Amino acid sequence: MKGNAIGSGFALTDHFGKSVTEADYKGQFALIFFGFTHCKLVCPRALTRISEALDLLGDQAANIKPLYVTVDPERDTPDVMRNFLETPWPRFTGLTGKREAIDQVRAAFKVFATKVADPSDPEGYDMPHTALTYLMDARFQYLAHYPDTMDAARLAQELCRETAQSRKGLK
C-alpha cells in the first residue's frame, strides 16, 4: 500500500479557522488520526497514546505533525476542535470542513465512520469509526498505518524506523 494507495489531497479548515491543504504539511511527516470531539473512549485514548509516543521520540518528534481529522463536522467546528485539543493534546492540529470535504478525505484514507443513534448523547448520536493512525512522508505520501491496539512505546519505535528509512530514501 505504498505510494498513492492511501491518502490524497484535501482542502479543510484547521482549528484556528485557517484553510489548509496537504501542501501545508509537506516537508514534514504527518501523523493522522480520524475521530470526533464527542468520542467518549477511543479518541481520547488514541490522542493520548500518540502524544506519549511523540514524547518518547524527543527531538525526533519535531518533524512529525500530528493531525486530528473529524468524522463529525456538523458538531466539530474549528472552535470546538481547538477547545477539545488545546489543553490535553496541544501538539495536534484539528481539521474540519464541510461534510463533502470530510467525506472525500475519509474515502482517500479508507476510513469508515457512520452516524448511529445514541440516546445518552445530548445530540442523540454517536460516530463509530476506524481507529488507525496513518503516517505520511514529507511529500504527503502514505508510509504506514498503525492499529489502535499498538502501545505508545511500540508506536514510537515504528515511527522512528519508518521516518529514518524514508529520510534515507529506502521507501
UniProtKB/TrEMBL annotation:
InterPro entries: SCO1/SenC, Thioredoxin-like_sf. It comes from the Bacteria. SUPFAM superfamilies: Thioredoxin-like. It holds the Pfam family SCO1-SenC. CDD domains: SCO (cd02968). Belongs to the SCO1/2 family. This is SCO family protein. It comes from Aurantiacibacter gilvus.
